[in-house]
Amino acid sequence: MPEIAYLSKVRVERVKGSLRHAFLPEEPQPVKFGTHGAVAKHYGAKEGQYEPHATTLDYLVAAAAG
Q: Which end of the chain, N or C, is more open, meaning fewer C-beta atoms within 10 Å of its C-beta?
């Protein structure tokens, strides 16, 4: 088996409701994950209940496209 080329060390903390902070390598500030729009509605969040932030799905799509 080949040696591991890279091991990502990431920490995710739940803040409140759907809001999470992800601590990523080389990023000085945590990245915020949350819900917005149709995703928030799907999970039953009432409008204005949470500050909208990109979802983990948004980040996955961006990573796959990059």
A: N
